[in-house]
Write a structure and sequence with these properties.
Elements: H1 3-30, E1 43-44, E2 50-52, E3 55-62, E4 65-69, E5 76-78, E6 81-83, E7 86-90, E8 97-101, E9 104-111, E10 114-120, H2 125-128, E11 143-160, E12 167-180, E13 183-191, E14 197-201, E15 215-219, E16 227-231
Antiparallel strand pairs: 1-10, 2-3, 3-4, 4-7, 5-6, 5-8, 8-9, 9-10, 11-12, 11-16, 12-13, 13-14, 14-15
Length: 272
């Protein structure tokens, strides 16, 4: 074996080993007791108090934000403090507030200007029966070096979601440009508060071997010259690929790629 062949073999082995480690971490995250596979309901709050089978109290949302009224035999724990009777969450954000109820967590958050309650129960059959997500095998041809191209100023882009009539507004600081399968491609990327970048995309496999609405991709660390590694082997399904109780953002039209990216996660075995 030549030195070049040995180097290529070592690089492939490293790619596979790193991907397998990431895959174990990803499956462990999906199977967490209070991850999105544990969600049992997506409840949209109104001014009229409502009770739900999978959460204590009567919930409403009005001028003063989200309010829950608990019966004498009900309680929640918010920020480590037990609460009883009427409790005001106030105006909630997208990140929301999480309250504890026995072994469950009650998520209270905003989605597109609407307040929601989503209970997370560890014994949800979808989580308990999770056995992993099918994937394409890792392949070095789906790892590309891209150029990060920042916009003159960050853009706020409105995208549709899997919920009819609901939209999300995402912060887009720029795009990444790269060559893949003989095509010159670009992806608009979105930023998070921690400075990380990610993309929502569809490709020619969407709706066949991969989830129809699209997939998500974390964008790696930028080098000083603006180069960044884009590894489609780590493309993941959004929560809505597994459950109908999510409000996932859909990729913007410009992130529809005209190639079959046979890498990353495929359509899950389980979907409710």
């Amino acid at each position: 074996m030549s030195g070049q062949e040995a180097a290529a073999t070592a690089a492939t082995g490293s790619l596979v080993a790193e991907w397998e480690r990431w895959r174990r971490e990803r499956d462990a995250e999906l199977a967490e007791p209070h991850g999105f596979l544990s969600i049992t309901g997506l409840h949209w709050l109104t001014a009229e108090p409502q009770r739900f089978d999978d959460a204590p109290g009567a919930w409403s949302n009005g001028d003063h934000g989200v309010v829950v009224v608990l019966r004498d035999d009900e309680d929640l724990v918010v920020d480590g403090v037990p609460v009883h009777g009427e409790y005001r969450f106030g105006q909630v954000s997208v990140r929301g507030v999480v309250a504890a109820w026995d072994d469950a967590l009650i998520e209270v958050a905003d989605r597109g200007g609407h307040a929601i309650v989503r209970p997370h129960h560890p014994d949800n059959p979808l989580r308990v029966s999770y056995v992993g997500t099918p994937t394409y095998p890792p392949d070095a041809r789906w790892v590309v070096v891209a150029r990060y191209l920042p916009f003159d100023r960050p853009r706020r882009i409105t995208v549709n979601t899997v919920v009819d009539g609901l939209t999300h507004v995402l912060d887009a600081p720029g795009e990444v440009a790269f060559e893949l399968a003989g095509h010159q491609l670009r992806l608009t990327v979105f930023g998070d508060r921690d400075g990380s970048l990610g993309a929502l995309f569809r490709d020619a496999t969407s709706g066949t071997t991969t989830y129809a609405a699209g997939r998500e991709l974390f964008i790696g660390q930028l080098s000083p010259d603006g180069a960044v590694i884009v590894d489609f082997n780590r493309a993941t399904n959004p929560p809505c690929a597994y459950i109908d109780l999510a409000t996932c953002a859909l990729p913007p039209p410009e992130n529809q790629l005209p190639v079959s990216i046979e890498a990353g996660e495929k359509t899950p075995h389980q979907h409710t």
